[in-house]
Amino acid sequence: MKAIIRMVMAVMAAAPLSLAAADAGGSLPDVDSVLKQVSDRAARESANDREFSRRYTFAESKVTEYRNGKGQLIKRDEKKSNKNSALVPAVYVAPPAAAGTAGHDEVQSKVHGQAFEKKDILLNEQLLKRFEFKVVGRDTIEGRAMIMIDFAPLKKDLPEKTLKDRFINKAAGRVWMDQADGALAKADLHLTSPVNVLGGLVGSVWKFDYSFERSRTSDGLWYTRAVDWHLEGREVIVNRTVDYHEQKSDVRRAM
Fold first, then answer.
1. Are 153 and 130 spatial neighbours (Cβ–Cβ below 8 Å)?
2. Which of 88, 140, 195, 199 has the lowest CB atom count within 10 Å?
3. Domains contained in the chain, number
4. Alpha-carbon distance 73 to 95, whole Å?
């Protein structure tokens, strides 16, 4: 989640127009004022995370499922934890390999996991130069007013020093900003075109969808309630699909 959040949050301060002033006329705020509010909020995100960890307990689950080119489940990893407890892998028994498949060995691939980690899209000034942003509307999530912002890669050559750069440069989607707090409450993104690994000789990813949802506690702290991503790709001649789901539950104030 922090990856996508900071992909939008580290933007440079631009126009001084406030959201309250823009709303007075009933129109959507301009993109510079929205990004300015998101940027200001970014400076408080680390403190927010520390306070949430200090004040709250929660249960967390992480599930990753691997499927072969026929859609057959070949591996399922599940980890569950409580706050301050080490992640404990759940007991897993691999389903039998279907005839003509590689079974468990098939998941040992460079195209098998998350296309990028959350921290890899944490925004800085250089990263923001790769995208164009547009305020597209309003929404309500959990009773709170949201501003919706679409983003897409700029129409120019972008630096690709690493494989992760290739994913970031081809990411587009929508984020929901809490109008009062400036916090990102939700995001949906996808690849605009396939990403090749080493020129396509080793593998490629032709579909990657990523989303997160955050909630706000009664005392004003934000936390990630759910993260989901879906990847479809190929390594050499083996096709595979990976699905990931992460969720926090039973969030409560520590005694």
1. yes
2. 199
3. 1
4. 7
